[in-house]
Structure formats: C-alpha cells, structure tokens
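In response to a reviewer's request, we include the raw inputs and outputs for one of the modeled complexes. The two entities were modeled together in a single run.
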Amino acid sequence: MNGTLQSVLYLIAAVAFIVGLKRLTSPATARNGNRLAALGMLVAVITTLLGSGVVSLTGIFAGIVVGSAIGVFAARRIAMTDMPQLVAAFNGFGGGASAFVAATEFIRDPGALDTRISIALSVLIGSITMTGSFVAFAKLQGLVSGNPISFKGQKLFDGFIALAILVLAVLLVTSPTSLIFWVLTLLSLVIGVTRILPIGGADMPVVIAFLNAASGLAAAAAGFVIGSAVLIISGALVGASGLILTSIMVKAMNRTLIRVLAGGFGGTSGPQAETGQLPVKRATADDVAITLAYARSVIVVPGYGLAVAQAQHVMKDLADALKARNVEVRFAIHPVAGRMPGHMNVLLAEADVPYDQLYDLETINRDFSRTDVALVVGANDVVNPTAREDTASPIYGMPILDVDAATTCVVIKRSLSPGFAGIDNPLFYMEGTLMMFEDARKALSDLVTAVNNV
Amino acid sequence: MLMVSITVFILAAFVGFEIITKVPPTLHTPLMSGSNAISGITIVAAIIVSGRAEGALATSLGVAAVILATINVVGGFLVTDRMLEMFKRDPR
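The model returned the following structure tokens for the whole complex.
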C-alpha cells in the first residue's frame, strides 16, 4: 500500500471519529454514530496491518485475538451499575498501551530530540493513567476502601516524586539512557497510585472523567512518538471530551479539580451529623399512594440509592401506574446522581424509561414550584437546601434540585443518615415533606400496589 | 515534525470542544465509553511498533500494547452500543 493511500485512509478514519462524536449529540443518532466511529477504527487498523514496515504479524494477531476476547467478554458481562469501574479499567488499558508503545520504541531507537520528547510524554502520561485508573477501579469495585487512604508526609512524598519525574524527563530528552527511562517509568507508575489513593469515593466521578481525558492525551502522545496524525486527532478529541466532563462534574459537586486531586474528601465516614432531634412526618405507602395518585404532576428525583437497591425497574412500574391515571411523570437527573457523568440516565434507560422523560437540572428546576409531588428516591445531598441558603454549609453553592418548591415532597430513604458530604438535610424536617423510611425497592413496590388499589 | 504534530493536536482539540459541549447530559456515560474506544486508536501505534520491534523484551512489550489497545477498542465500542441500544423515545 503506498503512503498517500495510507494517509487518505487514516484521514477517513479521523473524519469518521469526528462525525461519529457529532452524532452522539442526540440519542436518536447516537447508536449510529458509535458504529460509524467503530467502522473508522476498523479502517485504521486494516490500513496499518497492510502498511509497509510491519514485519512479523504473528505476535500482533495473537494480541488482537486475546484483546478482542477480553473486550467482548467485559462488554457483554458488565452490569450497568458497574459501568464506572469498566470505564476506569478501560482508561487504564488505554494509558498502558501508550506507555508500552513508548517503551517498545525507546528500546528500538530513542531517536532524535523530537522523538525523545514524545517518548518521555507518552510513557509519563500513559503510566500515570494506567496505575491511577487501576486504583480508581479498585476503589469503585470495593477491592480497596472508598475512604481516602493516605500516610504521614504523603504530600511531601508525592511532591518529591513529581520533582524527580520532571528532572528525569528532561534528562531522558537530553541524554537518554535505559536506566533513566525505566526509573522514570517506575516513578510515574508509583505516583499514579499514591495520588489517587487519597481521593474519596464521592470524588470518583471527577477522577474517572479526568483519567478519561488523560487516556486521550496518552493516545495523542503515542501519536507524537510515531508521527501519526490520526492518533493525535483522536487523542485530542478524547482529551477535550474528558476535560469538558471533568469541568461539568466539578461544578456540579461544587469542587475544583485541584481540591479533588489534593484528596482527603468524601469518605463514607464524614463528620457525624446531628439527626433526630427535630420531628419528621412519617408516611405509609397508602398515604403516599393517595398523594401521588391524585396529583396532576410528579417529578421523580432518583439518586444512587435507587441503583444500589436495584430499584430502577420497579420505579418504572410506579411511573407507568401513575401515567395510567393520567398523572404527568418526569424524572429530574442531577449531574452527580450516579457514580459517573450520565450514569443514572443509563440505569433508567436500562429499565425502559424513555429518554424524553429525563430532564437535566437547569431544564427542570423552575418546574418544581408548579409540581404537586416531588418524589426523592435514594438521593440526599443533591436535594439539600443548605447548598442554596447556608453559607456555612460545606456544600454551599453546589447546584441542587429545588424539590422543596413542590407542594409535597416525598423522600424515600432507609434512615436519616447523612449523605456523602456528611451533613444533615433540613428538607427532611420541612412542613411539606413526607418521609418513608424503607429500602427503595421495597418502598416502591409497596407504592405500586397501593396506587393500583386507590 | 513536532510542530506539525502540535498544530494538528491543538486544532483537533478545538473541534473536540465544539462538538462535545453539544452532547446532552443524558448521553455522558456513552460519550465516555465511546470516546474511550476512540482513544484505543493507540492500537495503530501498537501495531507499528510491534511490527518493527527487535528482541524479546521489545516484542513482548509491543504485543502487550496491542492487547491493551484492542481491549479498549473492542470492549469500548461494544459496551457503548449495548448502552445506546437501551435509549428509547416515549412511544406515545
């Protein structure tokens, strides 16, 4: 295959990625867009395999077969609730691939100054992305504690390693030796671990989005190493995507990237909130069913508790039962409702809730004041009015769903225990709030029965 | 060469920002897994460097790169397709 034809085919692949991503701007065209991008990838891979310079294909084919088998297995078997872990792991593989590419190329020929800069970048970003993502995976999967893990002098330790990495990267560019390369790789792998371990479970959505961006940058860096435009373009696209998602998540959580990466926030054992001295209105399934059944409009606010209880399907049953009684039912999705950006939407889509019933925060917040019932299921911090009113609150300034503006607010929750931020929620003690202390799935299935009996 | 690469990178990043800001929040998870699959384009670099690698260490590192990138590509596109298949409009 000649060089020009090869370049044209790579260009076609890059265009397929861009058009594919563009089709992801609407749920109606998204599936088609993803398939187009996959087709572009196939073109790129075949072009590479047929290109000149590939001497031995045996190892490559073996690698593709093994990788495909693992990829198919993971994609088919993963539960939708575990999607954050899968994406974290995939981010890590992407980073790892870039680091390995840099290592393979360095061993063959460290090359000229340009190439060495690229190799240093590629191995650095790739290694940090790999181990950082694997730690994020382990935290999300529950293999290590979701609480911040750190040791005395950690920040000093990390600072020292970061400095050493910087010096070694410069040395690798100016006077490359194997020793410098491998020590640089090792330190990059180490700092990936020590920087993600102190970050708490609540901040993981930000971390995954950030590592997503890093995996894109790693791909672009690998593109710099071999001088390939298609890699650089794809890497830049993914890097941009990851950074946008990171920025959306930090805003939705009222955090900054720097503070997230500094760690130490958002373990499951926050400061003990003062609970239980104020009276709450408890309601039975029958009380709530009557309120819901005679409402004109209901907005459901699902939180991660819904997913933990695997209650998406019974939630959909309740929505159907209400719609059969001509109640308007909509879903309000806070950006951090799940464990990664857009996670709750996928969980509800899995339960066959149509996507046009799902509304984001800005779109629906004005409508709460014109709504009869806001039904909060397994959510806490994202409906906490202190974020709006109490300047002393740790979550002050975080955008919340204004469920307290609805005529009645029903909260389904196992207990009064505080959420990730570890603070009490005044919503529970408000005049118009009814509390159902129950597991989400049990409460919702009781409600389905009760609504059908009204 | 490096300057050309940097130019391409910056222009593509702008295109990325323009497109991705228009992706609605409801599709953010498929966007992440789908863009992740696209970052598996490292498979191209992995194939090229494995194809010309010499010696046992370089060859095994190259094949490892191919395996990891392939998992990313195949798993990423498949799981994104699986998710997007579930997104349905209200039939009424």
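As requested, we also summarize the result in words. Chain B touches chain A through 84 residues (CB under 8 Å). The first helix of chain B runs from residue 2 to 20.
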